[in-house]
Specification:
Length: 392
């Protein structure tokens, strides 16, 4: 699961061509010595005796790629369904008192916490079936990300040593993200909260701990409890797409003066807020005006699709309507097609980085520069029609 604060592992580390020359048993011995020097008890270190050889499945998941690049339509459709909305609304009512206490303490509105909960682990029902220690040991032994994951497993041992969870019960994703809102050990160490006052932090089973911990992370990251995340908007026919994207920020008054409308056709409301226009599915898809809470959501997990989905699902929990301008036939690109697009952009002098088949910020910037040169709407959207244009 590439979720929640687990995004750190993708930001802080990079692949390496080095091979691991040390045997796994010797590596564990060294880890044990380092942990003991940090003050972790001998009783806790017995958990290292249970480690098996590195798990091939973890390494497979770490390096695997999907056959196709997921579209916004597909991404949203898998996570925002009528059944999911109904379930979220029911849980908001069921845990209303607790969620209101958390809101009073941290300023994070209940519908957003439940939206994170839904997307991360399907309301706690799918927290991952891996031993966190085993998954982290596998990734820490692999030289590509050794330093980062070694720090994570040492932190995980500290969490066990502090009595928050047993080694046997510390389950999570293949990447070591833990609990119902998928915290990496380092994020747990910095932000997790004992919400029920029992002297330990259990983000696996205690909803007071789960919600207080998530709200503390968001609050400390800049969440504004009096603001929403954003809204779907209508762009004027003459909108200059050079102003689209999260790097372009303007006041709501400036956007209103440019002709942006609510989906009802009314002018956008004015408040003392900065906002950006985000277009996740190209000019034929929906447009969103996004605020500071959208940016904070991306600190929890960076992809734009993720942040839009959290915000929209929270709106639906609160009685909002479906997105109005979803494209009817958004066509996915294959990994090979994206690689070809990147190679063609690079060949024309538009730097999209190493052709890896993934549409990241560098590829979007290259697409945007190409569109500008060609006089096309600068929506930064990598599509099959754009690939065909490059081919010709």
């Amino acid at each position: 699961m590439k979720t929640a604060a687990a995004f750190l592992l993708f930001l802080l580390v990079s692949p390496s061509a080095l091979s691991q020359e040390q045997s796994f048993s010797d590596w564990v011995t060294d880890l044990r010595s380092e942990a003991a020097a940090l003050g972790i008890s001998a009783a806790t270190l017995e958990a290292l005796d249970e480690l098996e050889e590195p798990l091939p499945r973890v390494l497979e998941l770490d390096s695997s790629q999907p056959e196709f690049v997921q579209t916004f339509t597909r991404y949203l459709g898998l996570r925002v369904t009528d059944r999911q909305v109904e379930r979220g609304q029911q849980l908001l009512r069921q845990h209303g008192a607790l969620l209101e206490e958390v809101r009073q303490r941290y300023g994070v509105q209940p519908q957003y916490l439940v939206a994170f909960w839904a997307i991360e682990t399907n309301f706690g029902s799918n927290t991952g079936g891996f031993s966190v220690l085993q998954a982290l040991a596998t990734l820490a032994y692999d030289p590509r990300r050794a330093e980062f994951f070694r720090s994570q497993i040492l932190t995980a041992l500290r969490i066990i040593d502090d009595g928050h969870i047993s080694a046997q019960s510390m389950s999570g994703s293949w990447a070591g993200a833990m609990g119902q809102l998928q915290f990496m050990p380092s994020i747990f160490s910095q932000y997790a909260v004992d919400g029920d006052g029992d002297g330990r932090i259990d983000i696996w089973n205690s909803l007071p701990d789960v919600f207080n911990s998530a709200a503390n992370f968001l609050s400390e990251s800049g969440w504004k409890g009096h603001e929403r995340w954003g809204r779907e908007i209508l762009l004027p026919a003459d909108f200059d797409f050079a102003f689209a994207g999260t790097k372009s920020r303007k006041s709501l008054q400036e956007w209103r003066d440019m002709g942006l409308l609510q989906t009802s056709g009314s002018p956008i409301p004015i408040a003392d807020m900065q906002a950006s226009v985000v277009i996740p599915a190209g000019v034929q898809g929906p447009a969103f005006l996004v605020y500071d809470n959208f940016r904070t959501t991306r600190l929890y997990n960076p992809p734009i699709f993720y942040a839009l989905t959290v915000g929209h699902l929270a709106d639906r929990f609160a009685g909002g309507t479906p997105i109005q301008r979803m494209p009817e036939n958004e066509q996915a690109m294959s990994i090979a097609q994206v690689q070809e697009l990147q190679e063609l952009l690079n060949g024309l002098g538009f730097d999209s980085g190493d052709p890896d088949g993934r549409v990241g910020s560098r590829t979007r910037s290259a697409v945007r520069a190409y569109q500008e040169q060609q006089g096309l709407p600068m929506d930064s959207y990598a599509s099959i029609s754009l690939l065909e244009s490059l081919r010709s």
